[in-house]
């Protein structure tokens, strides 16, 4: 729970102080030896009134949005480490230096700093109560709107984290669909789930080609939100929902196996973003299409060299069974265009190891065929404080997925794995403006890079997609 209040009332309070802040001059000599205002430095200062004062360093002026999130998270984590679940954050210094809009990032960071992965053991859930205080009266009403909007977005991020963190045996495709339906039930979202029989009836051959390898059948979840009914424009959000990815007959190496449960982070991000749009009554029209399945090994599993059909009617040569995400996204993108009337398409997936080799675990890759679409997305992820980088492509890259025996090949014949994986999906977008986000490196961290992360899922993409759609 986060509340914006005029005056801090909790016994534990945090103040944000930079390296050149005048407040440093008021600290005692002993205090200055343990706290100099360095970035993310924390120190507990004794007070005579039996209250706890936590100092959080903001470092030098001019910090980026991602740093503001870290500041909020650093304060929250310091209190939690001290087993303090109710505390106040005095944000007066941050508002003065960065403006009232900075409250969005501090709030998101503070909430994510309290995030804890669901435990499958007897352990009581904690409730955290956070106060934000120190906002000048003339900005208080605006600040309330910013904080409330941010809390909804952060709820979407935490939902995505929860889904990705769940063990595979607790999140089969039908479970994933049910979790999403429960999550969005009190919103203006229209939800529909196409089961295996419906998928077969409609010709989802690529999704079934992957999903029929498992005894837990595939499905397709569709979420429709119409926040601008007077407009015919519909943005399709297509998220990969592979709840278990062994790699199929192109089996993943053993040291990758613990991560196979999180191959549905794209689908989780899409659900979190649409939820936030609906709860905040954003003036946009969005349809989310999330193909869900497991990629296992069975007698009927796909083999390298197979040729299968697809919802679009195009044939696909299977060069690698571990390149399954693009197969199910192909069917979902085609469905978004033909059945849902999508005007433009954003797809998001934990798709390639190649993007991790390029950018590591802090930057996601983008492939896009429309400059205006990318401009809007860049504004969105900049506002959100996430990091993406656009990767160029040319005709020679398109030729890399040509097949001698089918319409398209699901694996490049000459490298460029991230680009060609995206271009494979583009083959099914039917000339609609298209943007592809590869979050394989940013959806999960074994060693948190930023203070607002915890071991496991990050909820990557939720905030950027939300902000992107609000930039129309």
Gross morphology is elongated
What is the β-strand count?
A: 20
Largest sheet: 9 strands, mixed
Rounded to the nearest angstrom, the distance between the terminal CA atoms is 30 Å
Going by helix content, strand content and strand pairing, the class is: alpha/beta
**Count of helical regions:** 15
Overall pLDDT confidence: 93
Regarding quaternary structure, what we see is single chain
Low-confidence stretches: none
Description:
This protein is an alpha/beta fold. It has helices at residues 29-34, 65-81, 92-98, 103-113, 140-165, 173-183, 196-202, 205-211, 265-279, 325-338, 353-359, 371-384, 395-399, 417-426, 462-469; strands at residues 2-4, 12-18, 42-46, 52-59, 86-90, 129-133, 190-194, 219-226, 235-239, 241-245, 285-295, 307-308, 316-317, 344-349, 364-368, 388-390, 408-409, 434-438, 444-445, 456-457. The strands form 4 sheets. Strands 7, 8, 9, 10, 11, 14, 15, 16 and 18 form a 9-stranded mixed beta sheet that branches. It has a 6-stranded mixed beta sheet with strand order 1-6-5-2-4-3. β10, α9 and β11 (285-295) form a beta-alpha-beta unit. α8 (205-211) runs antiparallel to α10 (325-338) and α10 (325-338) packs parallel to α14. The protein starts with a strand and ends with a helix. The model has no long low-confidence stretch (mean pLDDT 93).
Briefly say what this structure is.
With 472 residues, the chain is of the alpha/beta class. The chain is 35% helix and 20% strand. The strands form four sheets. Strands 7, 8, 9, 10, 11, 14, 15, 16 and 18 form a nine-stranded mixed beta sheet that branches. A six-stranded mixed beta sheet has the order 1-6-5-2-4-3. It has a three-stranded mixed beta sheet with strand order 12-13-17.
């Amino acid at each position: 729970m986060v509340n914006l209040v005029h005056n801090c009332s909790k016994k534990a309070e945090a103040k944000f102080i930079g390296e050149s802040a005048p407040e440093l001059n008021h600290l005692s000599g002993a205090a200055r030896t343990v706290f100099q205002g360095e970035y993310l430095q924390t120190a507990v200062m004794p007070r005579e009134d039996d209250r706890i004062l936590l100092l959080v360093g903001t470092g030098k002026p001019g910090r980026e949005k991602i740093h503001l999130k870290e500041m909020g998270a650093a304060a929250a984590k310091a209190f939690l480490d001290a087993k303090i679940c109710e505390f106040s954050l005095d944000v007066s210094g941050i508002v003065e230096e960065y403006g009232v809009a900075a409250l969005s990032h501090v709030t998101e960071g503070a909430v994510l700093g309290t995030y804890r992965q669901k435990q499958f053991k007897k352990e009581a859930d904690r409730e955290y109560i956070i106060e934000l205080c120190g906002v000048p009266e003339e900005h208080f009403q605006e600040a309330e709107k910013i904080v409330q909007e941010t809390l909804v977005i952060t709820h979407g991020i935490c939902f995505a984290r929860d889904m990705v963190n769940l063990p595979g045996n607790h999140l089969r495709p039908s479970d994933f669909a049910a979790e999403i339906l429960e999550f969005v039930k009190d919103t203006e979202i229209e939800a529909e789930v196409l089961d295996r029989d419906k998928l077969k009836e409609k010709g989802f051959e690529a999704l079934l080609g992957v999903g029929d390898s498992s005894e837990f059948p595939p499905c397709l979840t569709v979420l429709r939100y119409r926040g601008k009914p007077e407009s015919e424009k519909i943005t399709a959000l297509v998220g990969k929902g592979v709840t278990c990815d062994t790699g199929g007959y192109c089996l993943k190496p053993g040291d990758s196996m613990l991560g196979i449960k999180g191959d549905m982070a794209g689908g989780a991000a899409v659900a979190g973003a649409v939820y936030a749009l609906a709860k905040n009554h954003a003036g946009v029209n969005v349809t989310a299409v999330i193909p869900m399945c497991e990629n296992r090994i069975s007698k009927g599993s796909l083999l390298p060299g197979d040729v299968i059909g697809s919802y679009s009617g195009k044939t696909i040569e299977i060069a690698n069974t571990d390149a399954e995400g693009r197969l199910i996204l192909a069917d979902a993108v085609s469905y978004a265009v033909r059945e849902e009337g999508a005007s433009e398409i954003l797809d998001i997936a934990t798709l390639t190891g190649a993007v991790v080799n390029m950018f590591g675990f802090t930057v996601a890759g983008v492939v896009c065929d429309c400059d205006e679409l990318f401009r809007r997305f860049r504004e969105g992820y900049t506002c959100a404080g996430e990091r993406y980088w656009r990767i160029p492509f040319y005709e020679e890259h398109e030729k890399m997925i040509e097949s001698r025996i089918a319409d398209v090949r699901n694996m490049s014949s000459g490298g460029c794995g991230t680009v060609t994986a995206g271009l494979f999906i583009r083959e099914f977008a039917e000339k609609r403006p298209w943007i592809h986000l590869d979050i394989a490196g940013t959806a999960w961290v074994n060693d948190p890079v930023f203070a607002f992360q915890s071991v496991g899922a990050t909820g990557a993409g939720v905030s950027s997609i939300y902000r992107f759609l609000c930039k129309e």
